[in-house]
Design the sequence.
């Protein structure tokens, strides 16, 4: 039987996700570098970048309105709020009213929307391009993610992630139903899109023709940019957390007490490392798709997700 | 004796094919060709007598009953006619350069391999063997269709192999489903002999109707593709027009009939399991579609071999209608039509082939005044066209009338009306085409050499059967058809 | 293994088969389609092995082995060779947009499940969801053959189709007779060889892709 998660635990998990986000990005970059036979920057490099940005001043375009300044804070706030909804160390519903998976996706969508609005507000050409592209991809990704969540939620009878993860219990691959395979496949297809990685986006480039997410950040600087970057690190880890909450058991079943939490933390680290390796492998072995090919790629994820839901219902 | 023959029959063309691979001499190849076909005919006649006297025989995966015998007789007679025709046709084709003299043996060997697979199709009792042999016919005939090796031939061959292979995989799925129904109904009797048609027929009424229904639709699409039923007929006009003429005759005369036999086998199972109304409906839909779809293409066609191809679509549709109307009259008519159309269509292809060789074109606007340059060939072409159009006193008139009679008897008025209208329109179109080819002024480009003897002999054989069958059906053949009808209807 | 376990495993394999099929439908490069169909055949072989182990049917072991050797290894290898040898266009050319094909895919799968759900007593004769998955694979293979222009993708569609039939056939409780299955596999190999020869022949005689041959109509 799963135990409720108290407020303290939820806050702990949230801050873990926010604080460890840059570390995951650093790990992926390091793995990628090693796969490409490069030495690569240390795994802590994203932290150093953030610190550097926080120490810099802010420059703002003349065309930008006052709203532009508040965008980074709002984006970060929405993303951090989303982070609170993911069970990390232990499964089980929260002990107090908290949002569910739909809320999580909604908050992430809000953050994305604010980012795009901010990019448009600054009036730069690249920002506008990035925003338009991002908004073309988003409507393809978000419904598919919803479908994956629903395909799991149908069984559990709830969309609250903690309860969903609790429902999954300790079951691994052998106990999976057919729909789980398709759902995970859909998730793995969508993951690079949602985390802004190859083959949909390229996080390493500022070449105007290829960038989606990076294009929208061009006009930000200093602490504002730091907020935006931190938000995207967090968003990535939240997505990975969502995958593991949906498809892999979270923490030991009777995981009350500190040892249980530690086991849960270890398991979480292992799962995230696995998914990070997956992302690094995909990034190293595929090329970025031409933009008009992206809907086709995402279509595969959408179909898988739809079928996963279909298999549950039929 | 009869049981041994069951194994020997498919072996005859196989051995012939293997023997052919040992020689390059054209005379020897032709002799082997005619000889092998003649042996096949003789053995089949022996088998027919044995079966008439002693009823169906089975041996392992093969079985011969009266139904299969009807198709077998058609197959071997047409094979013999094709062999005789090929002797003279080949001389011309080699001279023109259509066939390469050095690769003739592989052509002959493939034709006989093709015949062997068709013999197995007809004799198969096991539905799995039926499918395997049917796919075998695809593989062997695909190479034959593209044999000329030019652009269009290869395109037709590719289309043929892709379309029929798609179709035939539906057929396999249907077979699997029927087997699943059988395995569910008779848990212990399944196993090696589990796909035997005769075994399934014994328990057919107790099969699950739902799964048999889906299975039958799959089979109908699958074997229907091979039979050239619209809308799965896409390969047929291309393949018939691009293949060497003897192969066209075999495709149209026998191959699509073999597929019909497959459909009949499953129809009997479906009728027993789900009641006769269901297969009737399916067959009527496909039959009517074929007749309707073929008509405009026949009218607008300029390529004579494509015309004959589309015409085959129409006639397969008529057979399906006859089977659909059902009852003793409809089924008898359908089976008779299978034989009549096979013989007549082969004759038409032969006559068209010689005309094409004479004019160097398949375009009917070029082929004119045939009567003046090749009187015998032109007469045979006219006879075939008149018969195909369904005029009395030829045999097709008789069988079409029986199909019509069955439809009226069962009160399928809309189907009968459409059928009649289309047949009348096609009659007009066909007579127009045939008339314009036979009469008029022959262009200077037309060859005026004497007509070769062996093609005429092959055609005369078929024409004789065609005319005779129109005037009277021999008692022994009538008895065979009646017993075959009994197998389908009961 | 208990019947329930087998049932679950077949269901799971069915889902993975659908996944490979989606990859084939959406593949933009010929190699990816070939690898996907090889993976699919591998899954079929695994399904055969599972069913063989559970029913003790020796025939199924043979079929699983043959499937593994022929359809998962030899045929993909042949396709691979043809691609290399011909230096064909690697990009797949669909006749209709891939998005539309994917939409059709969903429709086909849903329809297959509906259809087999409407059959009550099939559960006794066919294990798990082998019937709907088989129907879906067969139809989707045909869809691939119909919507792709290049010869090699059409062959991939054919193999996928055949895989669907095999999956259902294996899951029929008694299993199909061995001789029939072997015959079917032989036929598939022969058909593939004839197709490969034809592709090469078109290349050598008229110097064109099969896809470029579209003059016969009407």
Sequence:
């Amino acid at each position: 039987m799963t135990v409720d998660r108290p407020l303290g635990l939820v806050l702990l998990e949230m801050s873990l996700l926010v604080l460890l986000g840059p570390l995951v990005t650093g790990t992926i970059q390091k793995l990628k570098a090693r796969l490409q036979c490069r030495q690569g920057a240390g795994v802590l490099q994203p932290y150093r970048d953030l610190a550097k940005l926080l120490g810099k001043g802010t420059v703002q375009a003349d065309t930008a309105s006052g709203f532009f300044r508040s965008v980074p804070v709002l984006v970060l706030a929405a993303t951090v709020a989303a982070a609170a909804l993911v069970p990390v160390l232990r499964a089980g519903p929260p002990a107090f009213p908290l949002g569910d998976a739909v809320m999580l996706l909604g908050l992430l969508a809000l953050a994305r929307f604010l980012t795009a609005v901010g990019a448009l507000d600054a009036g730069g050409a690249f920002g506008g391009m990035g925003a338009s592209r991002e908004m073309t991809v988003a409507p393809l990704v978000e419904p598919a993610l919803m479908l994956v969540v629903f395909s799991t939620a149908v069984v559990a009878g709830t969309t609250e992630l903690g309860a969903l993860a609790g429902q999954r219990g300790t079951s691994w691959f052998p106990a999976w139903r057919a729909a789980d395979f398709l759902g995970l496949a859909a998730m793995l297809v969508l993951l690079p899109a949602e985390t802004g990685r190859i083959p949909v986006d390229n996080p390493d480039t500022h070449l105007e023709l290829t960038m989606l997410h990076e294009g929208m950040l061009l006009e930000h600087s200093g602490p504002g940019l730091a907020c935006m970057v931190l938000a995207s690190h967090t968003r990535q880890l939240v997505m990975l957390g969502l995958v593991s909450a949906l498809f892999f058991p979270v923490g030991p079943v009777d995981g009350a007490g500190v040892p249980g939490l530690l086991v849960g933390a270890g398991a979480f680290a292992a799962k995230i490392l696995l998914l990070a390796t997956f992302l690094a492998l995909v990034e190293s072995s595929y090329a970025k798709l031409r933009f008009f090919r992206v809907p086709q790629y995402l279509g595969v994820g959408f179909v898988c997700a739809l079928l996963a839901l279909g298999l549950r219902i039929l | 004796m009869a049981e041994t023959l069951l194994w020997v029959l498919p072996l005859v063309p196989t051995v012939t094919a293997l023997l052919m691979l040992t020689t390059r001499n054209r005379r020897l190849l032709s002799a082997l060709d005619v000889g092998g076909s003649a042996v096949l005919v003789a053995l089949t006649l022996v088998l027919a007598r044995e079966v008439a006297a002693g009823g169906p025989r089975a041996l392992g995966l093969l079985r011969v009953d009266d139904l299969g015998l009807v198709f077998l007789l058609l197959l071997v007679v047409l094979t013999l006619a094709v062999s005789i025709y090929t002797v003279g046709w080949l001389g011309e084709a080699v001279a023109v350069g259509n066939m390469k003299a050095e690769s003739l043996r592989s052509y002959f060997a493939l034709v006989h391999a093709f015949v062997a697979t068709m013999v197995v199709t007809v004799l198969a009792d096991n539905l799995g063997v039926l499918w395997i042999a049917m796919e075998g016919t695809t593989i062997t005939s695909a190479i034959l269709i593209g044999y000329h090796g030019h652009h269009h031939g290869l395109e037709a061959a590719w289309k043929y192999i892709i379309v029929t292979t798609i179709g035939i995989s539906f057929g396999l799925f249907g077979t699997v489903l029927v087997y699943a129904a059988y395995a569910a109904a008779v848990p212990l009797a399944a196993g090696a002999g589990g796909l035997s048609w005769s075994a399934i027929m014994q328990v057919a009424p107790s099969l699950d109707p739902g799964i048999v229904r889906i299975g039958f639709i799959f089979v109908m699409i699958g074997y229907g593709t091979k039979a050239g039923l619209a809308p799965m007929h896409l390969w047929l006009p291309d393949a018939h027009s691009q293949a060497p003429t003897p192969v066209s005759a075999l495709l149209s005369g026998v191959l699509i009939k073999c597929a019909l036999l497959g459909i009949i086998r499953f129809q009997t199972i479906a009728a027993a399991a789900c009641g006769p109304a269901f297969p009737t409906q399916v067959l009527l839909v496909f039959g009517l579609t074929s007749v309707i779809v073929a008509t405009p293409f026949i009218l607008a066609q300029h390529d004579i071999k494509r015309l004959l191809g589309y015409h085959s679509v129409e006639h397969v549709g008529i057979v399906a209608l006859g089977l659909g109307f059902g009852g003793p009259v409809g089924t008898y008519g359908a089976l008779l039509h299978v034989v009549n159309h096979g013989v007549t269509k082969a004759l038409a292809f032969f006559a068209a082939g010689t005309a094409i060789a004479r004019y160097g074109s398949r375009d009917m606007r070029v082929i004119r005044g045939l009567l003046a340059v090749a009187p015998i060939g032109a007469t045979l072409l006219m006879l075939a066209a008149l018969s195909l159009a369904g005029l009395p006193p030829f045999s097709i008139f008789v069988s079409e009338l029986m199909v019509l009679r069955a439809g009226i008897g069962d009160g399928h008025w809309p189907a009968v009306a459409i059928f009649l209208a289309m047949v009348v329109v096609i009659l007009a179109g066909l007579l127009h085409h045939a008339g314009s080819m036979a009469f008029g002024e022959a262009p200077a480009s037309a060859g005026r050499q004497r007509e070769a003897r062996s093609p005429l002999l092959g055609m005369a054989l078929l024409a004789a059967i065609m005319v005779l069958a129109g005037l009277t059906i021999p008692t022994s053949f009538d008895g065979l058809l009646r017993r075959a009808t009994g197998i389908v209807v009961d | 293994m208990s019947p329930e376990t087998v049932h679950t495993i077949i269901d799971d394999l069915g889902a993975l088969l659908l996944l490979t099929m989606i990859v084939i439908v959406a593949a933009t490069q010929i190699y990816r389609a070939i690898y996907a169909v090889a993976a699919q055949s591998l899954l079929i072989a695994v399904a055969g092995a599972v069913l063989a182990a559970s029913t003790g049917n020796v025939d199924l072991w043979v079929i699983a082995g043959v499937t593994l050797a022929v359809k998962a290894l030899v045929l993909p290898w042949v396709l691979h060779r043809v691609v290399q040898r011909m230096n064909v266009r690697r990009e797949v050319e669909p006749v209709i947009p891939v998005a539309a094909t994917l939409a059709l895919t969903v429709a086909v799968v849903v329809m297959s499940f509906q259809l087999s759900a409407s059959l009550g007593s099939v559960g006794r004769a066919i294990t798990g969801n082998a019937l709907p998955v088989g129907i879906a694979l067969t139809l989707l293979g045909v869809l691939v053959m119909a919507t792709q222009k290049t010869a090699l993708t059409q062959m991939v569609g054919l193999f996928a189709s055949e895989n669907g039939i095999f999956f259902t056939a294996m899951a029929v409780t008694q299993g199909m007779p061995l001789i029939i299955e072997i015959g079917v596999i032989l036929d598939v190999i022969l058909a593939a060889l004839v197709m490969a020869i034809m592709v090469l022949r078109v290349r050598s005689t008229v110097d064109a892709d099969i896809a470029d041959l579209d003059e016969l109509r009407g």
Observations:
- The first helix of chain A runs from residue 7 to 35.
- Chains A and B do not touch (no CB pair under 8 Å).
